[in-house]
Write a structure and sequence with these properties.
Distance between the termini: 47 Å
Strand content: under 5%
Order of helices and strands: HHHH
Radius of gyration: 19 Å
Shape: flat
Number of strands: 0
Number of domains: 1
Number of helices: 4
Helix content: 55-70%
Structural class: mainly alpha
Length: about 110
Amino acid sequence: MGSGMTEVHNASDEKSVKKRQDKAKRQAAARDEDFKWLLTQPQFRRWLWHLIHDPERCALMQSPFSPNGSVQTLNLGMQEIARKLYADVTKVNAKLIPQMMLEHAEAEEHA
């Protein structure tokens, strides 16, 4: 990080390339494990459901249409984030989406 300069890597150095690929795989695996752990937490699932479905946030189930093309583009982008989050959740455990839906419905009943 320090100097802010981009590191230069030699793509023809197989050892260096392999080392960088291994590092990237370890980092991705660590992120996956972090996400799996977060999904075990009811508070995180509640927050994530709200993020994905809230009309002021990703609004996945809302129409992205707007007469303003810039707003519509923004809406589509936010919904794409929601779709990626859904995919990440189902990659961890496909049963979590229905579980989150039920948890949300139960919370709404008791609110």
